[in-house]
Write a structure and sequence with these properties.
Strands 1-7-6-5-4-2-3 form a 7-stranded parallel beta sheet, with helices on both faces. The chain contains 20 helices and 7 strands. The two termini are 44 Å apart. The protein is elongated. Helix 1 runs parallel beside helix 12 and helix 5 packs antiparallel against helix 8. It is 43% helix and 7% strand. It is an alpha/beta fold and 492 residues long.
């Protein structure tokens, strides 16, 4: 588990890499059970100083939304989606604290399923989050808390103070008063509905795995939703998630650790804002009614930047480094580390999502990859592939493509087998590269715009003559060949 200092190093400096023309990413802030948008005030003040826009939202039954009904997870998600639609941020990150985290993941699933109104979502942060699974809580305490806020005002105040004090290590008098007053503003029906129903709803299967940048934050002394619960019940719902534990803190982290949390959120927002992978015009096409919801979901998922430093899943770290070196020569592309073709191939093999065929002379994936990368390792006549200069690497690939590669004694694959693997890896990599929407944008590919919303499939094209273009068709972003032609036979 990462500690705060490690995570801060990853996400700082604030706004690093953000271009002068980039639209800052908005942080949509969802509060804990008993809280409100005001819970985030200490964090918002620091983010405002860093010029990061925020959208704190009162959930139904709490804060300024006390009179709003609809206390289930889906109802709350509807309420937040409406607030986001009204604010219309170009890009936003959902930040859910405790109860708000479960709502945030429900919204993230909608976005992943192609909900165009949430297409600007570019990340999720959970803070002491209530997980998609039923929230762990001692039943006796649950029943006791369900009886709160039904008596005289003085009794309700004592219950609010008990609730706040039990969920913090230490608070200033001002922040404690703010939290207590927030709790006293809630609608008791919303309080009981969450304890009795919302927190028990099981969204585990519905949420599944979300391919979004994610940060999972926990309080080191949180009894129910601390680091262990976050690792076991929350982080597992993201393909890759950074995890941070804030020590000497319990559950009300926006009040207990406002400065540290603001730094983490600012760094996460900067990372999201600086993503240059998908051209805005092509994103607009993907999000238009010309693209079916299913295809939109697939394309937006492919466009999620690959996480830096992700550990391999089906091969060794050494193999992954070597494969990246091979692909850097075979399929050069302008998208930097945001498109990690080697990482995607590794994940493809781990999830058994290949193209379904193999050469008879080769073992199946990933065994063929392991054997070929071992053949290109330290015992190869020229040394490990990743240690060669670019010219030597190209000569190795050219020889491999012709079946003339010199292999070391005892190498797992001979020259003939390495020729077949060359065809295999080139095919796999080009397929992944060509299927990425950023590549489609560079080519000006418009074939995605052939199906609409609500079953209006195969909308078709009217202008099909040479040089004719529909108004919705994208203009190629790059006039030169995507893959440079080589004269050495390595690739073309």
């Amino acid at each position: 588990m990462q500690r705060c200092a490690v995570a801060l190093e990853r996400f700082q400096p604030i706004c690093a890499g953000m271009s002068k023309t980039a639209t800052p990413t908005t942080l949509v802030l969802l509060h804990f059970l008993g809280g409100s948008a005001r819970t985030w005030e200490p964090v918002v003040a620091r983010l405002t100083d860093a010029a990061i826009p925020t959208l704190p939202v009162d959930l139904p039954g709490f804060g300024a939304a006390r009179e709003v009904e609809g206390y289930g997870v889906s109802d709350m998600a509807d309420h937040v989606a409406q607030a986001v639609a009204q604010a219309a941020p170009e890009r936003f990150v959902l930040v859910g604290h405790s109860m708000g985290a479960k709502v945030a993941l429900a919204l993230a699933r909608r976005a992943a399923d192609g909900d165009a109104s949430l297409s600007g979502l570019c990340g999720v942060v959970t803070v002491a989050g209530s997980p998609p699974a039923p929230e762990p809580m001692a039943e006796e305490r649950r029943q006791t808390m369900m009886g709160w806020f039904l008596g005289p005002d003085a009794q309700s105040r004592r219950e609010a103070e008990e609730f706040v004090d039990a969920n913090v290590v230490e608070l200033s008098d001002r922040d404690r008063d703010l939290a207590v007053e927030d709790v006293l503003r809630l609608d008791p029906r919303a309080w009981r509905a969450w304890l009795d129903a919302g927190s028990r709803e099981d969204w585990t299967a519905r949420i599944g795995t979300l391919r979004l940048p994610a940060l999972v934050v926990a309080g080191g002394e949180d009894e129910d939703l601390g680091p262990d619960a976050q690792a076991r019940l929350m982080a597992v719902h993201f393909g890759e998630a950074s995890r941070v534990t804030l020590r000497r803190a319990k559950h009300l982290l926006p009040l207990e650790r406002a400065g540290e949390l603001a730094d983490l959120l600012a760094g996460f927002a900067a990372q999201a804002t600086s993503d240059p992978v998908l051209d805005p015009g092509y994103r607009d096409l993907i999000e238009s009614s010309r693209v079916s919801p299913k295809l939109r979901r697939i394309l937006l998922e492919r466009a999620v930047p690959d996480p830096a430093g992700a550990p391999p899943r089906s091969m060794s770290a050494e193999h992954l480094v070597r494969l990246r070196a091979v692909l850097a020569r075979l399929v050069p592309h302008p998208f930097g580390t945001a498109l990690d073709l080697a990482g995607r191939l590794d994940a493809m093999m781990a999830e058994a999502e290949g193209n379904g065929w193999r050469f008879e002379a080769l073992p199946g994936d990933p065994d063929a990859y392991h054997a070929a990368l071992d053949t290109l390792g330290d015992d190869a006549p020229g040394g490990a592939f990743e240690m060669l200069d670019a010219g030597a690497q190209d000569r190795v690939l050219a020889a491999m493509s012709k079946g003339e590669l010199e292999v070391g004694a005892g190498a797992p694959l001979d020259a003939a087998a390495m020729k077949l693997w060359f065809e295999e890896v080139l095919s796999d990599a080009v397929r992944l590269y060509a299927a990425h929407p950023a590549t489609m944008a560079r080519l000006g590919y418009s074939g995605i715009a052939n199906g609409g919303e609500g079953g209006a499939l195969f909308a078709g094209f009217q202008k099909i003559g040479i040089g004719e273009r529909e108004s919705f068709e994208p203009t190629p972003l790059h006039a030169t060949p995507i893959l440079p032609t080589r004269t050495d036979g390595a690739s073309s």
